[in-house]
TrEMBL record:
The keyword Ion transport does not apply. Its main location: membrane. InterPro entries: GatZ_KbaZ_carbometab, PTS_IIC_man. Pfam families: EII-Sor. The chain crosses the membrane at residues 31-50, 95-117, 204-237. Keywords: Cell membrane, Membrane, Phosphotransferase system, Sugar transport, Transmembrane, Transmembrane helix, Transport. It comes from Paratractidigestivibacter faecalis. Coiled coil: none annotated. The keyword Transmembrane applies. It is found in: Cell membrane. It is a multi-pass membrane protein. This is PTS sugar transporter subunit IIC.
Length: 265
């Protein structure tokens, strides 16, 4: 019970920081996972689950009026349940996505509730009641806090035993299927990110990283190291040419026109 309360409290506060303190990307799975794991006494599993979920949701953004799955609730509950139930992180990873989709309803309901504070703040603004405006702003933040805290706490308290019995009842063949689907989810997340950022000019570097991992068994850290070297080489070969070309163009544009050309004009 205490662990569930702490997990819900810390996760909701991390999310609230992005609402009140500016967006510092602390509400990402790669941050929430290790923090929840530290509270649960298993930061290693928290880091593994958080890292996997970050790969799944790294390209997920709310564009316009769209509401993406609730990453905070999904990450916190998936990490907490993975540690409390002892299930493999692949199985928990497969369960994290539906948890986040269900919790998406909270992200839809919170702005609806906050319309009350928005209209109340307008009335306070007409009355020049700045104290009332401040209270409305904090009231909206509290609503967002509760819509993160309550689902995580209830999901941990009510779902721990249910998830444990559910995992025990899953046949081995289904377990293996969930494990394989869990392994595919990070690849799907990376594919979504590549689709948003793909550029033919830099596509060769993507295949370079794939070749390093597939044929030379280079680790992720090693591929990142090679990527940094490739970025420096690319900058040295092309980054300094653009300013030089710009200076030449600027110098040519600033050359005076000969008198003969003036006479011809």
């Amino acid at each position: 019970m205490l662990q569930g309360f702490l997990v819900a409290l810390v996760s909701a506060l991390i999310y609230l920081e992005s609402r009140l303190g500016g967006q510092h990307m602390l509400d990402r799975p790669i941050i929430i996972g290790p923090v929840v794991g530290l509270i649960m006494g298993d930061p290693v599993t928290g880091l593994v689950v958080g890292g996997q979920l970050e790969l799944v949701w790294m390209g997920l953004n709310g564009i316009g009026t769209t509401t993406p799955p609730n990453v905070v609730v999904g990450s916190a509950l998936a990490t907490a349940l993975a540690i409390s139930t002892g299930a493999s992180y692949e199985t928990t990873l497969a369960l994290a996505v539906p948890i986040a989709v269900v919790a998406q309803l909270c992200d839809i309901a919170a702005p609806i509730v906050n319309t009350f504070f928005a209209h109340q703040a307008d009335r306070f603004a007409n009355q020049e009641n700045y104290r009332g405006i401040d209270l409305c702003i904090w009231g909206g933040g509290i609503v967002y806090f509760l819509f993160k805290f309550v689902p995580i706490f209830l999901g941990y308290v009510l779902g721990s035993g249910v998830i444990t019995s559910f995992v025990d009842q899953i046949p081995p063949v289904i377990q293996e299927g969930l494990n394989q689907s869990g392994n595919l989810l990070p690849a799907l997340g990376v594919a979504m990110l590549i689709q948003l950022t793909w550029d033919k000019k830099f596509g060769v570097f993507l295949f370079l990283g794939f070749a390093l991992a597939a044929f030379l068994n280079v680790s992720t850290l090693g591929a990142a190291f090679f990527g940094a070297i490739a970025a420096v080489i690319y900058y040295m070969l092309s980054g300094k040419q653009a300013p030089a070309a710009a200076l030449e163009t600027q110098g040519a544009a600033s050359e005076p026109i000969d008198d003969e050309d003036d006479e011809e004009l």
